[in-house]
Amino acid sequence: MKNLMNMRAVIAATWPNVARISDAKTAGLSPEILDGLQPWVRRVRAKVDAMPKLAAAPTATESVATIKTSPLKISELPVPVAPVADNHANGQDKAKEEPRNSETASAIKEELKKAGWTVIGGSWKKKSEGLYEATNARLEAAIINGTIRFAVQKSGGGRVSAFVRNNYTIEKSKTNDMGDFATGYGVCVDGKTYGIYIPWAPQDVQPTARKLKPHLEREDHLPVGSTRNEYGVTMDGLRLQIDVNGKRVRMTKYEIPEAGPFVLVVEGTVLIENPQVSGK
C-alpha cells in the first residue's frame, strides 16, 4: 500500500514535467520501483513532446527592450478628444441666430429716411438694392405739396395705398371691398386693379374746401401679364395728379385742406421698389 501511494506521488510530481525524473527520486522510492516506471515515463514524455509548444511569455526586461527599440508610429497614438463645453451652463447660447435680412433693420430705416420718409413702421425686409418686402407696413412724410413714387412687384394679395394730405376719417358705414372713401387722395393698388381717389362732394353741395372728401372715382385693370407697375401721386397747390406706368390717368384741381401727411400704407405682404417721397 505504501509503495502504491508513493507511485501516485511520482505521477503527480512528474506530470507537469516528466523530464524532471529527479522529482521522483526525492519521493523516497527504491531503485527497483524507479526502473519499473521508466517505460511509462518514456511514453508520457513522447506524448508531451508531440503536443504543440506555447511561446514563453516575455520577461519584464525583454518587454522594456522591445518598447525602446520599436519605432513609434504617430497613427497608433490615441487621438485626444477635447471636452465639449456646455455654454448653457454659463447662461450663453451655443449659437447666435443669423439676422434674417441682408442688412440690419436700422440700416433699412436709414435708407428709407434718405428716400424722404420720416416715420417708418411695420416690417421692411431688403431683398435687393431698392427692393423691399413690406408686411403690414407704413411710411409717412410731414409735407403738404410733393410727390410719392414707387413700384409694385407681384403684390401677392397685399394692398398698397399712396395718399397725399391723409387727414380724412372714414365712416364705417361708407366702406365696401376697396372702400368708397379713403383717408387721403391718391391711388390704391389691390392685386390686378387699382383705384383712384379724388376730391368729391355731393352734387347738391358746393364743392368748398371744407366739405371735399377722398372718394373712389373708378377702378382700372393693370396690364395683362405685368409683374411690375409704377405709380406716382403728386399734390401741388390745387392740382392732384395720378400716374400709372409713366402715364397720367387722372388730374383734378380743387381746394382741399392743407392738412395731413403723405403716406404709403401696406396691408398684407407686397414687394415694393424704390418707395420715395419729395416735397415740402
Give a written overview of the molecule.
It is rod-shaped and about 155 Å long. Strands 1, 2, 3, 4, 5, 6, 7, 8, 9, 10, 11 and 12 form a twelve-stranded antiparallel β-sheet that branches. Residues about 1-5, about 15-25, about 85-105 and about 175-180 have low confidence and may be disordered. The chain has five helices and twelve strands. The protein has helices at about 1-15, 20-25, 30-50, 60-70, 105-115, and strands at about 120-130, 130-140, 145-155, 160-165, 185-190, 195-200, 215-220, 230-235, 240-245, 245-255, 260-265, 270-280. Helices cover about 20% and strands about 35% of the residues. The chain is α+β, with helices and mostly antiparallel strands and about 280 residues long.
Task: Describe the structure using short key phrases.
alpha+beta; single chain; disordered N terminus; 280 residues; 12 strands; twelve-stranded antiparallel sheet; rod-shaped
